Automatic annotation (TrEMBL):
Pfam families membership: Mod_r (PF07200)
Protein name per its UniProtKB record: VPS37 C-terminal domain-containing protein
Coiled coil segments of this chain: 95-129
Family affiliation: Belongs to the VPS37 family.
Coiled coil in keyword set: yes
InterPro entries: ESCRT_assembly_dom, Helix_hairpin_bin_sf, Mod_r
PANTHER family to which the protein is assigned, alphabetical: VACUOLAR PROTEIN SORTING-ASSOCIATED PROTEIN 37 (PTHR13678), VACUOLAR PROTEIN SORTING-ASSOCIATED PROTEIN 37A (PTHR13678:SF2)
Naturally occurring in which organism (per UniProt): Melanopsichium pennsylvanicum
Keywords linked to the UniProt accession: Coiled coil, Endosome, Protein transport, Transport
Residue intervals of the VPS37 C-terminal domain: 113-208
Signal sequence bounds: none
Entry's localization field: Endosome
């Protein structure tokens, strides 16, 4: 049995309306307009002018729920982006201030880092002065100076030469009497022997 054109059209419309329920109420001419190629202008129509079929198709396309849902989602995304942009603009002054503060702190840290190299060198130099070897050397030098000073005092007394009346460094020179000589000589030698004893024990590992 051969289907009639009417039954074929009815079957086509049934399949079409099942997929696109919005076409159920359209006339045959409307369906033909939708099926027409909108890129082909009608006779006497300029190619740059939108065709009636194109306008009809666009109107129908925009009436579809899925299309409207897509437009609604797109509009929601645009609004969300605009709100985010507004929030970002509101935060911009605080961010700029924070950036400037961070840059200032970074510059300060770099300056301190450069300064630390100099301070570290100075600290190392100071530590050398108080290292065990430096302290031992200083103790030996001090003992040696005391020995030299006591010998100079003894020579001045024996030879009757003038000698500073005290160890302040600003005292005047004068002849020493026996009592003053003995007192100063004993003090110098006592201090010398104490320091030399400590230095010798230090060198022997007996001082910690």
């Amino acid at each position: 049995m051969i289907d009639s054109p009417a039954s074929s059209t009815s079957a086509l419309q049934t399949r079409l309306t099942t997929t696109f329920p919005q076409t159920a109420s359209l006339l045959r001419e409307d369906l033909q307009s939708l099926a027409a190629d909108p890129s082909i202008p009608l006779p006497g129509q300029s190619p740059s002018e939108p065709s009636q079929a194109s306008a009809y198709f666009e109107a129908f396309f925009h009436s579809l729920p899925k299309t409207q849902s897509l437009y609604s989602s797109h509009a929601s995304l645009l609004r969300a982006n605009e709100e985010k942009a507004a929030r970002n603009l509101a935060l911009q002054p605080d961010l700029e201030a924070l950036r400037a503060e961070t840059q200032a702190l970074f510059d300060r840290a770099k300056a301190l880092e450069a300064e630390w190299a100099t301070k570290e060198a100075q600290l190392n130099e100071l530590q050398k002065r108080f290292s065990p070897s430096a302290l031992h050397f200083g103790l030996m030098q001090s003992a040696s100076k005391l020995n030299d000073k006591s010998e100079a005092l003894a020579n001045a007394f024996v030879e009757g030469l003038e000698y500073p009346l005290d160890d302040s460094g600003t005292a005047v020179n004068a002849l020493l009497d026996e009592q003053a000589f003995v007192k100063r000589y004993k003090e110098l030698r006592k201090t010398y022997h104490k320091r030399r004893l400590v230095a010798d024990r230090w060198a022997g590992g007996q001082v910690h």
